[in-house]
Amino acid sequence: MHFYDPTGERYGLPTYPFRMAPTGLATRRQLREQNLRPGGQEIAAQIMWRRGDRVAYLYRIDLAVAKRTASPAQLAAVGRALAARRTCPKCGELQTYYIPRRTGACLDCASSGSAQ
Questions:
Q1: Quick check: 105 and 90 in contact, CB under 8 A?
Q2: Where are the alpha helices (DSSP H) in the chain?
Q3: 27-30 — which CB contacts under 8 Å span 24+ positions?
Q4: How far apart are CA 47 and CA 6, in angstroms?
Q5: For the whole model, what pTM was predicted?
């Protein structure tokens, strides 16, 4: 077991091989699945694999805090921003797709030549 270093002498942090982390530790993604976030805690350990090219940091689950939820005003602002990305600046139509940045207009306006 090449990356097994539970004391952290070799890598500076307690290190475990892929899929061998002890219980009570989780990655950010695993915390997010449980509606948690690290909450400012220090990295507790790490997982290494692929000859040390890949590293995932682990956090203690018991110190994790609940994810923050967006306020109604924040959700409305995100909705307006996403709608603006779908509104063609040439014809003003709201599209079902994001306006390509390359053309700067919806596909109809870009193909008719009025985008340039």
A1: yes
A2: 28-33, 72-86, 107-112
A3: 27/56, 27/57, 27/58, 27/59, 28/57, 28/59
A4: 11
A5: 0.66
DSSP-derived secondary structure letter, 84: H
Distance of CA 77 to the CA centre of its chain: 20
pLDDT in tens, 14-60: 999 988 889 999 999 999 999 999 999 999 999 998 877 889 999 99
Measured distance CA(91)–CA(57) in Å, rounded? 48
Q: Give CA 47 to chain center in angstroms.
A: 19
Question: How far from 22 is each of 46, 98, 103, CA to CA, in Å?
Answer: 11, 44, 51
Helix (H, G, I), strand (E, B) or coil at 18: coil
Distance CA 24, CA 18 (A): 16
| Contact predicate 5/39, CB 8 Å | no
C-alpha–C-alpha distance, residues 74 and 99, integer Å: 23
